[in-house]
């Protein structure tokens, strides 16, 4: 009787550990994401940087440059952060306005290895602070 109890307890413990490990790994997978910006839905992009001068430098991006910007933004590997810590300052700020004027604009702020998309903070694993500098030359 005691042996059956030990075997049953061991099986239950193994199943619980497996379930916990599976749910934790699933949670990490779900928190990784990419931006999915469709440039065909965009009417205007404004980019601002504080890297090139003391005062912010603001440009409106031409239609011909949109695809390159969206390809880069969509390529970032993002990991959602529970910590909503906001750093002071930023390197790039994107204001993306849609053709559908009922849809609110998207705000993207990038600083170091963090990106804030509409008030949600993500960590970027493949970001280089020179990625968008070409826009301001």
Structure, explained:
This protein is α+β, with helices and mostly antiparallel strands and 137 residues long. Helix content is 31%, strand content 28%. The chain has two helices and eight strands; from the N terminus they run αβββαβββββ. Strands 1-4-8-7-6-5-2-3 form an eight-stranded antiparallel β-sheet. A hairpin with a 2-residue loop joins β6 and β7. The longest helix has 30 residues. About 4% of the residues have low confidence.
Descriptive labels:
137 residues; alpha+beta; eight-stranded antiparallel sheet; 2 helices; 8 strands; 31% helix
Short description:
Helix content is 31%, strand content 28%. It contains 2 helices and 8 strands.
Structural topology:
Blueprint: H1 2-31, E1 32-33, E2 42-49, E3 57-60, H2 63-75, E4 78-80, E5 92-98, E6 106-111, E7 114-117, E8 120-124
Antiparallel strand pairs: 1-4, 2-3, 2-5, 4-8, 5-6, 6-7, 7-8
Q: What is the percentage of strand-forming residues?
A: 25-35%
Q: How are the strands ordered across the major sheet?
A: 1-4-8-7-6-5-2-3
Number of helices: 2
Our Rg estimate from Cα atoms comes to: 22 Å
Mean pLDDT across every amino acid position: 76
Q: Major sheet, described briefly?
A: 8 strands, antiparallel
- Head-to-tail CA distance between termini: 80 Å
Number of strands: 8
Residues in helix, %: 25-40%
Poorly predicted regions: 25-30
Based on the structure, what is the oligomeric state of the protein chains?
A: single chain
Helix-strand pattern: HEEEHEEEEE
The assigned structural class equals alpha+beta
């Amino acid at each position: 009787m005691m042996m059956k109890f030990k075997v049953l307890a061991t099986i239950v413990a193994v199943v619980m550990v497996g379930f916990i490990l599976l749910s934790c790994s699933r949670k990490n997978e779900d928190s990784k994401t990419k931006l999915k910006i469709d440039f065909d839905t965009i009417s205007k992009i404004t980019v601002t940087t504080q890297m090139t001068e003391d005062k912010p430098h603001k440009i409106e991006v031409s239609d011909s440059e949109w695809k390159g910007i969206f390809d880069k933004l969509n390529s970032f590997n993002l990991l959602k952060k529970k910590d909503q810590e906001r750093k002071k300052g930023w390197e790039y700020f994107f204001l993306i306005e849609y053709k559908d004027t009922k849809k609110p604009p998207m705000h993207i702020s990038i600083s170091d290895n963090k990106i804030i998309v509409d008030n949600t903070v993500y960590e970027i694993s493949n970001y280089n602070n020179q990625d968008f500098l070409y826009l301001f030359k």
